[in-house]
Amino acid sequence: MAEFPVHKAELERHGYSGTTGAYGGTHRSSSVYEASAMTKLSLATLEDLDPAIGRPSYARNDLSVGIVHIGVGNFHRAHQAVYLDKLFDKGLDLDWAIIGAGIKPYDADMRSKLKSQDWLSTVVELEPNGLHPRITGAMIGFSEIEPASLLTVLTRPEIRIVSLTITEGGYYVDAQTDGFDVNHPDIQKDIANPGAPETIFGILISALGLRKDIGLLPFTIMSCDNLPENGKVAKRALLGLAKELAPDLVSWIDDQVAFPSGMVDCITPATTEQVKMLVREQFGIVDEAPVACEPFRQWVLEDKFSAGRPRLEEVGVEFVTDVAPYELMKLRILNGGHAAIAYPSALLGFQAVDEAMADPLISAWLKKLMHSDVIPIIPPSPGIDLEAYLQTCVDRFSNPAVGDSISRLCTDGSNRQPKFILPSVTDALQLGTSMEGLALEVAFWCRYCAATAEGSVNGPLEDIRHEELQAAARETRTDPSAFLQLGDVFGLLGRNTLFQTAFVSAMEAVWENGVHNTLTDYLQKEVA
User: Among 142, 159, 259, 430, which is least packed, fewest CB within 10 Å?
Assistant: First the structure.
């Protein structure tokens, strides 16, 4: 992949700051691209781009669809679509191209942008020493954004995999039971209108029923979301709704539809106007939705599929019989690590992740939390070095080229904490190991929620439960246990006496001493 070095200070002079996307390296002269050289990305203009910019070696007409991907965001285009693009570049499995899909308003916006550029995407890998751009072409279409059109696409015989990035909250998990939330308003609406489902799982059930009726093999449902055992979670949601909408399909789905679990990884910041401008000024590409991501990506996937799969092992995907050890490592250390640094960093005024990691207090906090509370409760597994993985995560978080934002890490805490932090608390309680740091992490999250209500940190609380989180967090000023009463977040854990005691102690310390002093005190205990 071609390298385009860009000096961070030079970008800052042009308005590219670390808070929205910073890039390191040596500046490449801006005279390489003049305003007249700007090229609107499309199939027709690929040859007009700088020859050093990577692009598909395969012809678009040689591709045919095999996968419908629901939820075409930046992560999908930086991860799954890149793997497929690399596979097609090898001349392999050209019948596994992607059709995008979705049912949300933001899916319509993405569809419009990608359609205007023939479904191509500019993916810029953010190396510490420069930028590596490539045009990817694994997507060849995008379903109209309404359920009937998606249903039509899903019943095409050539569709053999449906992959998902619908966020952690899209699987309707009941925080109280960890099972399927049949009472969720979206699910109840589908149940009340069985002939016109509007949720992704309702539409998938209808599509599978139609495929069964006309004698087609079922497609594999492949989750690419950050969830423990994401394949099992997807299956539980589908079967839970099928019991209500199509009970006659439950046994067939259970027997015939594969739901492989997978561990996916690639830090992918949101696309900002600065990133769009960077792509235009540095590479001469007018792309309505470019993707900037770290150069690291990983995909570990269970090798079970209903109707075949592309040979992704040829481009670095690891196929295993049991993905659970890899999932656990990533969810607890990388995702849990992101959560751990997010809230104290925000409260201390940091805006960029790499800048926070450069503060000895934040980096030491992350390492101690992982060494004291998290790594000891992760079962050892052959071939997995947890200490080495932690160091990899520290290095990735510290990469100044990525320019990931603290605000992104703080988003959607009521969905992320129950996936990335609270399971570690539960395991620590069961094993009788340390959980002081984990309780402190939850206290930092609580304090952040209160701070957004006070206006003492920049930006609003980006969370579907923002009102109840803020109200409960502010109440901890006088009743430190109030936050744990949010049953749809903490479930039974909120009523655990040991956890309550640890959380109340941490919460009182944060309120009385502030974040900096509380972190300092916590770290000094390690030395004592």
Answer: 430
What whole-number distance in Å separates Cα of residue 186 and Cα of residue 189? 5
Q: Given pLDDT bands bounded at 50, 70 and 90, which one contains residue 288?
A: very high
Length of the chain as a residue count: 528
Which residue in this structure is represented by tokens 């042009």? 14
Q: Which residues pair with 162 in a beta bridge?
A: 68, 221
Please check whether residue 333 is in contact with residue 394, taking contact to mean a CB–CB distance below 8 angstroms. Answer: no
CA distance 75 to 292: 10
Is-contact 343 444, C-beta < 8 A? yes
CB 58 within 8 A of CB 94: yes
Res 497 pLDDT > 70: yes
The C-alpha atoms of residue 164 and residue 171 are separated, in whole angstroms, by 10
| 380 close to 43: Cβ distance less than 8 angstroms | no
Other CB atoms closer than 10 Å to residue 308's CB: what's the count? Answer: 13
Residue 123's SS3 state is: strand
Residue 508's pLDDT is 97
For the beta sheet containing 318-320, the strands, ordered from the edge strand earlier in sequence to the opposite edge, are 262-265, 298-302, 318-320
Start-to-end Cα distance in the chain: 49
What the block records as the tokens of 437 is: 């740091």
Please give the residue that has the higher pLDDT: either 508 or 5.
Answer: 508
Torsion of CA 199, 304, 72, 346, to 10 degrees: 90
Find all residues with CB under 8 Å of 253, minimum gap 6, and list them.
205, 208, 218, 238, 239, 242
d(CA 23, CA 123): 14
User: Angle between the 497-527 and 336-347 helix axes, to the nearest 10 degrees?
Assistant: 80
Residue 40: phi and psi, rounded to 5, are -70, 125
User: Tens digit of pLDDT for each residue in 111-159?
Assistant: 999 999 999 999 999 988 889 999 999 999 999 999 999 999 999 999 9
Question: Six-digit token pair at 332?
Answer: 């607890």
Residue 373 in contact with residue 434, Cβ under 8 Å?
A: yes
Three-state secondary-structure class, residue 333: helix
Q: Rounded distance, CA 197 to CA 184, Å?
A: 14
